[in-house]
Write a structure and sequence with these properties.
Blueprint: H1 3-8, H2 12-19, H3 36-48, H4 54-65, H5 71-80, H6 96-109, H7 114-117, E1 120-129, E2 162-170, E3 173-174, E4 178-180, H8 187-206, E5 211-213, H9 223-232, E6 235-236, H10 249-261, H11 270-277
Subcellular location: Nucleus
InterPro entries: Homeodomain-like_sf (IPR009057), RNaseH_sf (IPR036397), Tc1-like_DDE_dom (IPR038717), Transposase_Tc1-like (IPR002492)
Pfam families: DDE_3 (PF13358), HTH_Tnp_Tc3_2 (PF01498)
């Protein structure tokens, strides 16, 4: 009996003694579709062009090396080095002036201690829709079941209506959410419905060092509001434009939005949404 025939009848333990391993020997199995250099080429292309999909990468690889592989092979090579498709984070477009103003603001407040920040009341308004952005929610489903009605979330144009809420936070406390009903927020409504009944009592609790942080939207910067601040002795923190990400209350809105979007059963009317938000 030949040596090859003898090896084919060996047990795993016997094969280990003969060749040093019970598994397949190097060189056996299907030939790899790409070379290490081609793998590095794919990774390099993705590093340089993050928006390029697997089909375009497949075409570029064929054009550059003459090697034709499937799009799944392209994905597998990228997965092997830890690269996966992800939704990009969305941010506000900033000009050089915006960047300069943000840097100056950060430099001015970099040495503030907790005692200074505890006097700041961060406030903002946010809108929640009856039919929120479903991109917040992920679902588990089988491959090939994308069009199954059980896994499809219906959307409604303009969100199907929503509610605008006001809230404020500080290190040692927060306000209740206030629902702004019956129309948009104007400077007069901002003064009469938010500043006078909510912010002024909150400022009295914090004390004489109270500082209000509100953004630069038009109702907040109206002359009527400025006059009210002068009358009440409220100090406002200077805030750079296009900087919602610097306001910590934005994290509160994100958390609340996820809770509203993930509520089961989800709110179907404005009344249910208002009850959920509160």
């Amino acid at each position: 009996m030949s040596t090859m025939s003898q090896r084919s009848h060996l047990t795993d333990s016997e094969a280990w003694r003969v060749v040093g391993s019970a598994g397949p020997r190097p060189g056996q199995g299907r030939r790899r579709a790409t070379t290490p250099n081609e793998d590095r080429y794919l990774v390099l292309m993705v590093r340089r062009h993050q928006n390029m999909n697997a089909t375009l990468l497949q075409q570029h690889l064929r054009s550059a090396t003459g090697t034709t592989v499937s799009t799944q092979t392209v994905r597998n090579r990228l997965h092997a080095v830890g690269l996966y498709p992800r939704r990009p984070m969305v941010c506000v477009r900033l000009t050089s002036r915006h960047c300069r103003d943000r840097r100056e603001w950060a430099t001015e407040h970099v040495n503030w201690r907790k005692i200074e920040w505890s006097n700041v009341h961060f406030s903002d308004e946010s809108r929640f829709s009856v039919h929120p952005d479903k991109r917040r929610i992920f679902i588990w489903r089988d491959r090939g079941s994308r069009n199954n009605p059980a896994f499809v979330h219906e959307s409604v144009r303009f969100g199907g209506g929503g509610v605008l809420v006001y809230g404020g936070i500080s290190i040692d406390g927060r306000t209740d959410l206030y629902i702004i009903r019956d129309g948009p927020l104007t400077a007069r409504r901002y003064r009469n419905e938010i500043l006078r009944p909510i912010v002024v009592p909150y400022a009295a609790v914090i004390g004489d060092d109270f500082i209000l942080m509100d953004d630069n939207c038009r109702p907040h910067r109206a002359n009527l509001v400025e006059d009210f601040f002068s009358e009440e002795g409220i100090v406002r923190m200077e805030w750079t434009t296009c900087s919602p990400d610097m306001n910590p209350i934005e994290y509160v809105w994100v958390s609340l939005g996820k809770q509203v979007a993930g509520r089961q059963p989800p709110p179907q009317t404005l009344q249910e949404l208002q009850a959920t938000s509160c």
